[in-house]
Specification:
The protein is rod-shaped and about 60 Å long. The chain contains 1 helix and no strands. It is 17% helix and 0% strand. By secondary structure, the chain is an all-alpha fold.
Length: 41
């Protein structure tokens, strides 16, 4: 595995291609869900 390996993200960066291991549009980083509208006690 390395730059020549098409199945790894590093290999895809080296080749400039996209796929499962290196999606063209990376999934958004999920934040910790903030509590929506906290009601006062």
């Amino acid at each position: 595995m390395g730059r020549g390996d098409k199945k790894t993200a590093k290999g895809k960066r080296f080749q400039g291609s996209f796929g499962k291991s290196r999606p063209a549009k990376p999934a958004k980083a999920t934040k910790a869900a903030a509590p929506a509208a906290v009601k006062p006690a």
